[in-house]
């Protein structure tokens, strides 16, 4: 049985991994076959084109690897729901959009497996807080 010698966390656009940095610079020193990882990651995320996908990669002593795909960060899901590029640089003074309770519930439903919230209500409060820090009003 192979033992885990290194754990690597990356955030890569879905379906668009390349051997160039940051992927190559993170995986090269670990001895991972970069081309093989890029191929497997792109195949697994081709339906999520462009969304940032967090990856937990476990590297074993025989240079093999496994990876777990996570849901996109809450901030990215909020931006996608509103159809905007980025949040406000001055969150308190300058608002960039309005997020409805239904949109919050949809984000919670997608993100819940990766969250450490005890309930859907607590997860919703977390998402709402993220939205407020981005200059988005929750109604």
How would you explain this protein's 3D organization?
By secondary structure, the protein is α+β, with helices and mostly antiparallel strands. It folds into two domains: 4-69, 2-Layer Sandwich (Ribosomal protein L11, N-terminal domain), CATH 3.30.1550; 74-138, Orthogonal Bundle (Arc Repressor Mutant, subunit A), CATH 1.10.10.250. 37% of the residues lie in helices and 22% in strands. It has five helices and five strands. The strands form two sheets. Strands 1-2-3 form a three-stranded antiparallel sheet. Strands 4-5 form a two-stranded parallel sheet. The protein is elongated and about 50 Å long. The chain starts with a strand and ends with a strand.
Topology:
Blueprint (H helix, E strand, L loop, with lengths): L3 E10 L9 H5 L6 H12 L6 E9 L4 E5 L4 H9 L14 E3 L1 H11 L8 H14 L2 E3 L1
Parallel strand pairs: 4-5
Antiparallel strand pairs: 1-2, 2-3
Helix pairs in contact: 3-4, 4-5
Task: Describe the structure concisely.
The chain has 139 residues and is of the alpha+beta class.
- Enter the CATH topology name of the largest domain: Ribosomal protein L11, N-terminal domain
* Number of structural domains: 2
Secondary-structure class? alpha+beta
CATH uppermost class of the largest domain? Alpha Beta
Give the overall silhouette. elongated
Average pLDDT figure:
84
What value does the Rg take, in angstroms?
18 Å
Low-confidence parts, pLDDT < 50 over ≥5 residues?
none
Percentage of residues in strands:
15-25%
Distance between the termini: 52 Å
**How many strands, what sense, and barrel or not for the largest sheet?**
3 strands, antiparallel
The CATH architecture assignment of the largest domain turns out to be 2-Layer Sandwich
Identify the CATH homologous superfamily of the largest domain. Answer: Ribosomal protein L11/L12, N-terminal domain
- How many helices? The count is 5
Order of H and E elements: EHHEEHEHHE
Count all strands and give the number.
5
Task: Give the strand order, joined by hyphens, for the main sheet.
Answer: 1-2-3
Percent of residues in helical segments?
A: 25-40%
């Amino acid at each position: 049985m192979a033992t885990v010698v290194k754990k690597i966390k990356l955030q890569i656009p879905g379906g668009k991994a390349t051997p160039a940095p940051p992927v190559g610079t993170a995986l090269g020193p670990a001895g991972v076959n970069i081309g093989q990882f890029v191929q497997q990651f792109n195949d697994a995320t081709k339906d999520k084109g462009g969304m940032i996908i967090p990856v937990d990669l476990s590297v074993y002593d025989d240079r093999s690897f496994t990876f777990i795909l996570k849901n996109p960060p809450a901030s990215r899901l909020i931006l996608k729901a509103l159809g905007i590029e980025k949040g406000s640089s001055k969150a308190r003074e300058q608002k960039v959009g309005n997020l409805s309770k239904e949109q919050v519930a949809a984000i919670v439903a997608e993100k819940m497996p990766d969250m450490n919230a005890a309930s859907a209500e607590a997860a919703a409060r977390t998402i709402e807080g993220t939205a407020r820090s981005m200059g988005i009003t929750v109604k």
